[in-house]
Amino acid sequence: MFSIIAAWLITLCGRSFETPQEYDDPNAIVSNHLTHLRALGGLVEFPPSKLKSGSGERVCYVLDRLAEEALNCRQFVWKRPVYPSEQLEEESLLEDDAELTLSKVEDLTEEAAEFEDVIDLEELKSRTSQSVE
Known about the structure:
Layout: H1 2-12, H2 26-39, H3 57-73, H4 86-116, H5 121-132
Helix pairs in contact: 1-2, 1-3
């Protein structure tokens, strides 16, 4: 996965890079990644063998640098986040609580209505014993 993502990021930078295949030589793949990273201005101060596992600090560094370069090549600009005001959040919480309370009251009312239709067993026994006597 590392080599495929790195290849994709390199192509986003406008460079020609063939997507590595499963049976390609891992040493050649890693060397090609580092060659392109150096050409894009990245500092590589570790041996290529550190990337062969596809995990670890060096792999994260390479992907981070390639992603940064891809964003720069695409002239991506980060915008400031827009946060909702706290007052709106508090109002929505109060409305949510009111809805929950109302729905609970409705549920309790429905449950009470269901129990009104049920006859108590003790009452039924007393009625049957009175009619038998």
